[in-house]
Specification:
The protein is mostly beta strands. It is built from no helices and 7 strands. It has a single domain, classed as Porin (Beta Barrel). It is 0% helix and 80% strand. The model has no long low-confidence stretch (mean pLDDT 90).
């Protein structure tokens, strides 16, 4: 299954741009797209049955941080860790009764949690 994430984010650098190491954090909003999957479910009457599980897009957030190291004034190395939780669905978990609000059904939310650790080259102009 292919997973693609599209997020706009805001980042904050904790140091001046003239230092050799700059820690940073970021957070953003966007969407995660899960692609469709073709699967074989078995044989029915001697023939193989294939089905497609459709893909879908869901709202998601992304959170992360890392450090940029600049051994040269305009070239750096970036190390980043990120966390992207994506809401999938909620299952009924039971009833909650309150003397003020009354009784209502509560849900158990299920998420797809993506963790990543990456690195790269940074150019500073």
């Amino acid at each position: 299954m292919g997973v693609s994430s599209y997020h706009g984010y805001f980042a904050y650098n904790f140091a001046q741009t003239t230092v050799t190491s700059v820690p940073f954090i970021y957070g953003g909003l966007g969407a995660t797209n899960f692609s469709s999957v073709d699967t074989t479910t078995g044989t029915v009457g001697g023939s193989v049955t294939t089905r497609t599980i459709p893909g879908e897009s869901q709202f998601s957030t992304t959170w992360g941080g890392g450090v940029k190291f600049f051994p040269a004034p305009h070239i750096g190395i970036r190390v980043v860790g990120s966390f992207t939780p994506t809401y999938i669905k909620s299952d009924a978990a039971g009833w909650w009764c309150d003397p003020y609000w009354g009784c209502y059904l509560v849900g158990n939310a299920q998420y797809s949690n993506q963790l990543s650790l990456s690195g790269g080259v940074t150019l500073r102009f």
